[in-house]
Amino acid sequence: MSHPSPSHAAHDAHGSHGDAGHHHVASAGLFFNVLVALLFLTVITVAASRFDFGSANLLIAMLIASVKAALVMSIFMHLKWDTAVNRIMFLSSFLFLSLLFLFTLADLSTRGMDEQLQRVSAPVADQWKHPNPSGGGAHH
Questions:
Q1: Which residues, 6 or more positions from 15, have their beta carbon under 8 angstroms from its beta carbon?
Q2: Which residues contact 49 (CB under 8 A, 6 or more apart)?
Q3: CA-CA distance, 9 to 4, in Å (whole number)?
Q4: pLDDT tens-digit profile, the chain (140 residues)
Q5: Per the domain annotation, does 123 fall within a domain?
Q6: Distances (CA, A) of 33 to 37, 43, 105
Q7: Radius of gyration of the chain (CA)
Q8: Which domain holds residue 48?
Q9: How far is 53 from 59, CA to CA, in rounded Å?
């Protein structure tokens, strides 16, 4: 009767189905480097908020936030070492996030258009109500 070796028993305890039980262990140095990068990007975010870049304000803020989110997702959430299917599923959520932003920006860009149309169309509507301001004769 054979007894399993200690290493074999430890392997079975963590799962023997391929890499299902394998977890990547990142070094403390990597986490420290990411921390420094996130803090640096936070300083850049605060500094960028002090300047007026006009219409590029939103773009700059979103780019900095995207880099910070990518660092957190890839390192702290271990997506860098995860399977391709999980990465694709997670990153595909950004497609839906971009659609949300697109529809929100479309809504914001069309707000106030009804008031502008009323101001433009009001003189025309008044002409139809009162075709001849002098009050004489029929309008041909």
A1: 21
A2: 61
A3: 6
A4: 555 555 444 444 444 445 555 666 778 888 999 999 999 999 999 999 999 998 889 889 989 998 999 899 888 888 788 788 887 887 788 888 889 989 988 888 888 777 777 777 766 666 666 666 665 555 55
A5: yes
A6: 6, 15, 35
A7: 31
A8: 25-81
A9: 10
Q: Is residue 5 part of a domain?
A: no
d(CA 103, CA 11): 50
How far apart CA 70 and CA 81 sit, in angstroms, is: 14
CA distance 115 to 122: 10
In single-letter form, the type of residue at position 16 comes to S
pTM exceeds 0.70, yes or no: no
Cβ(92)–Cβ(98) under 8 Å? Answer: no
Q: Which of 62, 81, 100 is the last residue of a domain?
A: 81
Number of domains composing the chain: 2
> Amino acid identity, residue 133?
P
